[in-house]
C-alpha cells in the first residue's frame, strides 16, 4: 500500500476531521494510528525508557510503531509486502512475549453493504492471522473479529479516509 | 420491553360481523373469524373504479373524504387518545395519514369536514359530499365494550354511485386502537386499488445515535407509520440486521453481546433470547423462511463465509454453499422453494439463485457493477437489491436477473425490504461524511420517495408481514 502511505502526510495536514479521533502523533511516514492508546515519538524510545509494562498493549503499540495495523485495497484481502513487514514486526514482539495473545480486528470502508463488509472484515483479519501463523505464531494465540464498516477510524467520506479504514488492527488480549 | 410484550400479547384483533343497521350496532357484536368485507377485486364496470395494476394513475386521483368516526356514547377509554369521540377522530386521522403519507389517492379530512352523526354512519348524506366533490367517502364508528375493548366499524362509500363499496369491523384492545385505523386504511386501499393491504404491519430496525466512530446501535421496532416505537436493546452491545418472524413473535438479529458477532433469536413474548447456533465462529445475516420454520444465517470459518440453514426449533445446521468466496444473506421465494443470495465467488458481489436445499446455484446478475442484499418480493415477481457502481442505489430486477431498474439515486442507499404487498420498498440512506442514517421508502415507480419518521438515526429496516 505505498499509495496509502504517501497520502498519510497529506491527511495529517488536511484531514483534521479524520484525525480528531486519534490521540497519537504518528510519524509522518506512517499512517495515523487507529487506537488512542499509543504513545510514540519519532525517536522510538524503548518501552522501558517510557516505563511501559512489558508485554502490554502499550508496549506492543510502542514496539510496532504503527505496524500494528495493515491496510487493504478496495474489496481485497491479500497481504502485500508492506503488510508483510508490519506482520513480521508484530511476530517479533509476539515471539518476545510467548504468553501473550492477540486479536486481529478486521475492518472495511463505508462504501459497501453492511453484511458483506462484516464478512470482508473477517476475511481480512484471517489473512493477517494466517500470515502470523506462517511466521511461526501459534494459531491459538491469535483470535479474529470483524467489525465490518461499523468502527471507522477515519471519519471522512473520501478515498483517503476509506484507505485508512480498510484495515486489520492487531491488539493484545489481557 | 415489557410494554412491547404486552402489546403483542394483546394484539389479537378479532373481526366482527357488522350489524345491518346502526340500531343493531347497539347490540353485542357477533364475533366472527373472518373479516366481513375483504373483496379486493375491482368492480371494473363501475365508474371511477376501473383499476389495473400496471397503471396506477386513475385510482391515484380519487378524492377521498375521511370523516371523524362517530360514537354512540362519548365515554372515557383506556386508550391514549381520550374519550370514544376523541378516539373516533384519532382513528380517522390514522387512516388519512396512512393514505396521505404514502401518496395514495387524494385524501381530505378529518379536519375541515362535516362530522357525521352515529346514525349517519350507515346512511351517508350523499348530497353534502357531492357538493364537496368527493369521489369516495370513509365513515365509521367507535363503541366501547364493557371490558374496555373497542369495536370499530369502517365503511367505504362511492359518492357518485351512492353505494357502499366495502365495510369491516374489528374488536381491538385499548392499546391496539391504531390498528383499527390501519385496518380501515388497508380496506380502503385494497378495495380501490386492487392491491393487497400493507398498513397494518410493523418494522424492526436499528436505531443509531452518537458520532460516526462511536455510534450506538440499538434494536428497535415500530408500526408501519412510526407509531408505537420501542427500543428492545440498550445499545451496550452493537445490534444489527433484524428480521421479524412471519408471526411477529420473534426477531432474529446480530449482536456483539458475547464479543463475536452472533445471531440471536429474540422472543418478544418471553423477553428472552438465545443463540441461533453455538459456535466459536461469527454468524451474521439472519433470515426467516416465509413459513417461519427455517432460519438462514451466514457463518465464517477461517475467514470463509458460507450460508447455512437450520430449523427454527433447533437441530443440526446444514451448509448450503461451499464456495471459497463470500456467500452471504439469502432471501426465500414466497413459496419457500428457492433462495436468492449474494456471493463474490466471481470476484465481486453478485446475485445468485439456488434451490432451498443448496442445489442448482447459478448467477443471475449480469449488468455491470456489484449487486448485493437481494430480497425476494412477497409477490414473487421482483427481486430488490443494492446496486453498487460508485454510489449505492436500490434497484429491482426480475427473478431471472433481467429488467434491472434503479428506484433511487442518492450517495448511499442500501438494504431494501419489501412492504407486505410487494408494492413499496424501504431501505436506509447514509449521509456522506456525517454517516447519519435514515429509513426511506419508495414505490415501484421510483417516483414516490419519502423519509420515515424515526426518533433518532435509523438503518437496517425489516418490514414484517400484514398482521392477522
UniProtKB/TrEMBL annotation, chain A:
Record domain OmpA-like: where: 58-174
- Which Pfam family is one of this chain's hits? OmpA
Question: What top-level branch of life does the organism fall under?
Answer: Bacteria
Membrane topology per record: Lipid-anchor
Q: Where is the signal peptide?
A: 1-23
Keywords in alphabetical order: Cell cycle, Cell division, Cell outer membrane, Lipoprotein, Membrane, Palmitate, Signal
* Chain intervals for the UniProt region annotation (Disordered): 25-52
Q: Where, subcellularly, is it found?
A: Cell outer membrane
Q: Which GO terms describe its biological process?
A: cell division
InterPro entries named in the record: Bact_OuterMem_StrucFunc, OMP_bac, OmpA-like, OMPA-like_CS, OmpA-like_sf, Pal, Pal_lipo_C
A single GO cellular-component term on record: cell outer membrane
Task: Check the record and name the Gene3D superfamilies matching this protein.
Answer: OmpA-like domain (3.30.1330.60)
| Comp. bias (Low complexity) | 35-52
Asked if the keyword Lipoprotein belongs to this entry, the reply reads yes
Keyword Membrane among record annotations? yes
Free-text function comment from the UniProt entry: Part of the Tol-Pal system, which plays a role in outer membrane invagination during cell division and is important for maintaining outer membrane integrity.
**Which family is this protein grouped under?**
Belongs to the Pal lipoprotein family.
| Subunit structure, as described in the record | The Tol-Pal system is composed of five core proteins: the inner membrane proteins TolA, TolQ and TolR, the periplasmic protein TolB and the outer membrane protein Pal. They form a network linking the inner and outer membranes and the peptidoglycan layer.
Q: What is this protein called?
A: Peptidoglycan-associated lipoprotein
The source organism is Novosphingobium marinum
Q: Organism classification, top ranks?
A: Bacteria, Pseudomonadati, Pseudomonadota, Alphaproteobacteria, Sphingomonadales
TrEMBL record, chain B:
Protein encoded by which gene: tolB
Q: Which residues form the TolB N-terminal domain?
A: 75-162
The protein's name: Tol-Pal system protein TolB
Indicate the family of this protein: Belongs to the TolB family.
**Cross-referenced SUPFAM superfamilies:** TolB, N-terminal domain, Tricorn protease N-terminal domain
Task: Supply the Pfam families for this chain.
Answer: PD40, TolB_N
State the organism named in the record: Novosphingobium marinum
Subunit structure, as described in the record: The Tol-Pal system is composed of five core proteins: the inner membrane proteins TolA, TolQ and TolR, the periplasmic protein TolB and the outer membrane protein Pal. They form a network linking the inner and outer membranes and the peptidoglycan layer.
Q: Where in the cell is it found?
A: Periplasm
The record's section on InterPro entries has: 6-blade_b-propeller_TolB-like (IPR011042), Tol-Pal_TolB (IPR014167), TolB_N (IPR007195), WD40 (IPR011659)
Alphabetically sorted, this entry's keywords are: Cell cycle, Cell division, Periplasm, Signal
One GO CC term on file: periplasmic space
Record's signal peptide: 1-22
What does the function comment of this entry state?
Part of the Tol-Pal system, which plays a role in outer membrane invagination during cell division and is important for maintaining outer membrane integrity.
What's the superkingdom here? Bacteria
Biological process per Gene Ontology, one example term: protein import
The organism's taxonomy opens as: Bacteria, Pseudomonadati, Pseudomonadota, Alphaproteobacteria, Sphingomonadales
Amino acid at each position: 500500500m505505498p499509495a496509502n502511505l504517501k497520502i498519510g502526510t497529506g491527511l495529517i495536514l488536511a484531514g483534521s476531521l479524520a484525525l480528531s479521533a486519534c490521540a497519537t502523533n504518528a510519524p509522518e511516514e506512517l499512517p495515523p494510528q487507529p487506537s488512542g492508546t499509543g504513545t510514540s515519538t519519532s525517536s522510538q524510545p524503548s518501552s522501558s525508557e517510557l516505563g511501559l509494562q512489558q508485554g502490554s498493549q502499550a508496549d506492543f503499540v510502542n514496539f510496532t510503531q504503527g505496524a500494528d495495523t495493515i491496510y487493504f485495497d478496495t474489496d481485497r484481502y491479500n497481504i502485500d509486502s508492506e503488510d508483510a513487514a508490519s506482520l513480521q514486526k508484530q511476530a517479533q514482539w509476539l515471539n518476545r512475549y510467548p504468553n501473550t495473545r492477540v486479536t486481529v480486528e478486521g475492518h472495511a470502508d463505508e462504501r459497501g453493504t453492511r453484511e458483506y463488509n462484516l464478512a470482508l472484515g473477517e476475511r481480512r483479519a484471517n489473512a493477517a492471522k494466517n500470515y502470523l501463523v506462517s511466521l511461526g505464531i501459534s494459531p491459538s494465540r491469535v483470535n479474529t473479529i470483524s467489525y465490518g464498516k461499523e468502527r471507522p477510524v477515519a471519519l471522512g467520506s473520501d478515498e483517503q479516509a476509506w484507505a485508512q479504514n480498510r484495515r486489520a488492527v492487531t491488539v493484545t488480549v489481557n | 420491553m415489557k410494554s412491547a410484550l404486552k402489546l403483542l400479547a394483546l394484539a389479537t384483533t378479532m373481526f366482527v360481523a357488522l350489524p345491518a343497521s346502526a340500531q343493531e350496532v347497539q347490540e353485542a357484536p357477533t364475533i366472527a373469524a373472518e373479516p366481513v368485507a375483504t373483496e379486493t377485486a375491482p368492480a371494473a364496470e363501475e365508474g371511477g373504479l376501473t383499476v389495473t395494476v400496471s397503471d396506477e394513475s386513475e385510482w391515484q386521483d380519487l378524492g377521498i373524504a375521511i370523516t371523524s368516526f362517530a360514537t354512540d356514547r362519548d365515554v372515557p377509554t383506556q386508550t391514549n387518545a381520550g374519550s370514544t369521540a376523541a378516539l373516533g377522530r384519532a382513528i380517522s386521522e390514522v387512516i388519512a395519514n396512512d393514505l396521505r403519507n404514502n401518496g395514495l389517492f387524494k385524501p381530505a379530512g378529518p379536519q375541515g369536514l362535516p362530522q357525521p352523526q352515529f346514525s349517519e354512519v350507515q346512511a351517508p348524506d350523499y348530497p353534502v359530499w357531492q357538493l364537496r366533490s368527493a369521489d369516495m367517502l370513509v365513515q365509521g364508528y367507535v363503541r366501547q365494550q364493557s371490558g374496555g375493548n373497542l369495536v370499530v366499524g369502517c365503511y367505504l362509500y362511492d359518492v357518485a354511485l351512492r353505494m357502499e363499496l366495502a365495510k369491516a369491523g374489528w374488536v381491538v384492545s385499548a392499546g391496539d386502537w391504531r390498528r383499527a385505523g390501519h385496518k380501515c386504511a388497508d380496506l380502503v386501499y385494497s378495495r380501490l386499488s386492487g392491491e393487497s393491504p400493507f398498513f397494518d404491519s410493523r418494522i424492526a430496525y436499528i436505531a443509531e445515535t452518537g458520532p460516526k466512530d462511536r455510534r450506538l446501535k440499538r434494536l428497535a421496532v415500530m408500526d408501519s407509520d412510526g407509531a408505537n416505537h420501542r427500543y428492545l436493546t440498550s445499545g451496550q452491545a452493537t445490534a444489527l440486521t433484524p428480521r421479524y418472524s412471519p408471526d411477529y413473535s420473534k426477531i432474529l438479529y446480530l449482536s456483539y453481546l458475547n464479543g463475536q458477532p452472533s445471531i440471536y433469536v429474540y422472543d418478544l413474548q418471553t423477553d428472552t433470547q438465545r443463540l441461533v447456533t453455538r459456535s466459536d465462529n461469527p454468524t451474521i445475516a439472519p433470515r426467516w423462511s416465509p413459513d417461519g420454520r427455517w432460519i438462514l444465517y451466514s457463518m465464517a470459518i477461517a475467514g470463509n463465509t458460507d450460508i447455512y440453514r437450520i430449523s427454527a426449533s433447533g437441530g443440526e445446521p446444514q451448509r448450503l454453499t461451499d464456495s471459497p468466496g463470500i456467500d452471504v444473506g439469502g432471501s426465500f421465494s414466497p413459496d419457500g422453494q428457492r433462495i436468492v443470495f449474494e456471493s463474490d465467488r466471481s470476484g465481486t458481489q453478485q446475485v445468485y439463485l439456488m434451490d432451498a436445499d443448496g442445489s442448482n446455484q447459478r448467477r443471475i446478475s449480469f449488468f455491470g457493477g456489484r449487486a448485493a442484499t437481494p430480497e425476494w418480493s412477497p409477490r414473487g415477481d421482483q427481486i430488490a437489491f443494492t446496486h453498487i457502481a460508485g454510489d449505492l442505489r436500490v434497484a429491482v430486477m426480475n427473478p431471472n436477473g433481467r429488467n434491472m431498474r434503479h428506484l433511487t439515486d442518492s450517495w448511499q442507499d442500501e438494504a431494501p425490504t419489501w412492504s407486505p404487498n410487494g408494492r413499496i420498498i424501504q431501505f436506509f440512506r447514509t449521509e456522506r461524511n456525517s454517516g447519519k442514517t435514515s429509513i426511506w421508502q419508495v414505490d415501484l415507480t421510483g417516483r414516490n420517495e419519502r423519509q420515515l419518521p424515526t426518533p433518532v438515526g435509523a438503518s437496517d429496516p425489516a418490514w414484517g408481514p400484514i398482521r392477522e
